[in-house]
Amino acid sequence: MNILQRYFLTQILKSVVFVLVAFIGLFAFFDLINEIPIVGKGRYHLFQAVIYILLGIPAYVYELMPFAVLIGAIYAMATFANNSEFTIMRVSSLSTMDAVKMMVKVGVIFLIFTFAVGEGVSPITSRKAADFKNGLIGKNVSEKLKTGMWSKDIIRKGRSKAAAGNRYMNFKIMNPNGRSFEYGRIFEFNNKRELVKVITAEKGRFQGGNTWILKGVEVEDITPPSADKDKKFPETAPSIQRTKLDTMKLNSEVTPKILAVTSMDPNRMSAVELMRYNRHLDENKQDASLYKIAFWKKIIYPFTVFVMMGLALPFAYLHFRSGGISLKIFVGIMIGIAFVLFNNLFSHIGLLNGWPAFLTAVFPSLLFLLSAVYALWWVEKH
């Protein structure tokens, strides 16, 4: 790495870290204010609230990283312009393509860091933060749902694991970790969409290996109505046989990992978790559009640091008479806000209109990248 490349990296890195720390401190302060009304509920006190906020910091690092890269890079480029450093670099045979290459090399570092935080750190700490808070205040993940938490499952039988019907699971109270529930009801349908069994359980706990242990169980086996035209009611009516059991094993593809997804913000999940849940929804013939868009946004989001670096580079070509550093940073903040708003708005529009998930996720970044290329071409020409 030559001296000029190191200088670019050092100045941009210092600026980005400063901006990132400032924004994280600001967001953490707002979070603390939001937690004050809840402090004192159950075992959730001020110290626990601080721990909860600290656990949420990696998620903010991931979400704010492109924004911090934009502001930090603009500050560094505007400083180069105001000190005439970039002019000297250009006189010393630095071409626009050379500057782009140096920005790309710096962007690779931010890309790797953003991807590592988004995939390896943020999903874990976000889940731990939710479990930590819900456990202290005695909140279950299905508390906000009027009829409890619902999940769909496929009934598989035999060695071939062929689908023998569908199962709809309803949990009145689901613990934050998704490994146990209270007051559960399970409705099983055959391939003809006939209700064949209703299982009611007072409690349930996940044992591992796709197995749930149910306690306080009542099983209602339902014989579907007869289709024999020679028989008349009540011979054609369905029959119900009730059985009470102390414990019962239930094999299900619905695991705590699946249930944890339904209670989390898709934007704070890892790409692996989103891919796993998308496959579960597709197998159960459920609409997975929201989670498919979230998956592609998760893949594409780290690459937006290159878009932000591209948007920042033209500011190095602007002379100090075009405005001070503060004005340029303000413009950068407006660009960042516009990107976030447009990205979120386009995701909702794509979801409503049923557009392809990849196109919905990549279009805002592609549009702003083209804007960066045009801005770079314009400042170089003028």
Description of the structure:
It is a single chain. This protein has 382 residues and is an alpha+beta fold. The protein contains 11 helices and 6 strands. The protein has a 6-stranded antiparallel beta sheet with strand order 1-2-3-4-5-6, with no helix packed on it. It is elongated. It starts with a helix and ends with a helix. The model has no long low-confidence stretch (mean pLDDT 84).
Task: Jot down its keywords.
382 residues, alpha+beta, 6-stranded antiparallel beta sheet
CA-CA gap between termini: 31 Å
Q: Summarize the amount of helix as a percent range.
A: 55-70%
The number of E-state strands comes to: 6
Total count of helical runs of at least 4 residues: 11
Let me know the average pLDDT: 84
Q: What general outline do the C-alpha atoms trace?
A: elongated
Q: How much of the polypeptide forms β-strand, as a percent range?
A: 15-25%
- Helix and strand run: HHHHHEEEEEEHHHHHH
Structural class: alpha+beta
Rounded Rg: 28 Å
Widest sheet, order of strands: 1-2-3-4-5-6
Largest sheet: 6 strands, antiparallel
Spans where pLDDT lies below 50 across 5 or more residues: none
